[in-house]
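From the pipeline queue, job 12 of 40. The input is one protein chain; the requested action is below.

Action: predict structure.
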Amino acid sequence: MSRRRGLVAGAVVLSFVLAGCSDVAASETSPSNTPSSTASSPSTTPSTTPSATPTVKPTVKPTVTPKPRVKQKPAYYALRVERQLDKLGYPVGDIDGDITARAKQALCAWRETNGMPVSRAGLTLNDAYSVLNATKRPTPTRSPGIYVNKTCQILYQIVGNTYKRIVWISTGAPGYDTPNRTGKVWRKWAGAHESSLYEDAYMYDSLYFLKDRPGIALHGSRVNSLIKPYPASHRCVRVMRPEIHQIYADTPIGTKVQVYGEY
C-alpha cells in the first residue's frame, strides 16, 4: 500500500515538472501577434536627399578679336595705278611704281576727265580707288576738238564723243606764255620747217589756230626731250611725236582749239 502511494507521489511530481517545462517552451516558441519593434520593414517615405547629378559646364567659345583693317598708303597702289592709267590711254612714262612728274601729268588728266579737283599732286587714295575701279575712259562732256590744259600740261583730242588721244605737251615758258584762248585751225603745215620767229627752231606737222597771233601753233619738236613736263616753249604748244603726226592727220581746217588753265 505504501509502495503504491510512493508511485503516485512520484507521478505527481513528474507531472508537475513536465508541465513546467511545457510552459517555458511555450513562452519561448509561441509566435507573437505583436510585430517586433526591431523588425525591418520597407520605408514608404521618399528620400529627401537628391541624387548626385554631374554638373555640365557650357563650352565657352574663345572671343576672337577682329584685326583692324590696315589702311594702305597710296604708294602701295602706285604700280597698279600706273598700269591701269596706261591701259586706259593716260601716258605715265615708265611703269615702275614711281610716281614721277610724268605720272603726275597722267593723274592730273585723270582727275579732270573724271570730274575731280584738278591738280598736279601725287597719288592719293581717292585717285587709286577711282583709277582701279574704272573699266574704260569716261565720255567727254565737251564738243569735239583739241583742248590744251596748261595746269596738267596735257592735250586732249576729242573725236566724236570719245577721248581719242591724251598726250603730253609743253606750253610757253615764263615770259613766253601761251595765251588762254579759243580758236580754230586755220592753217596746216606738214612735215618739218623752221620757225619764222626763232632761228634754228624746227617745227613738225604744225597746226595754227589763232589768226591774230599767226606764229602760235601746235607742233612737234626736233626731239621729244624738248617737250618738258612743265612750260618750256616760246608760246607755241609743243606736242610729242609721233602723236602730233596722228593728230595732224585727224584734224581738218576749222577744228576747235582751246587753251586754258594755269601752271
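Job complete. The chain is about 25% helix and 20% strand.
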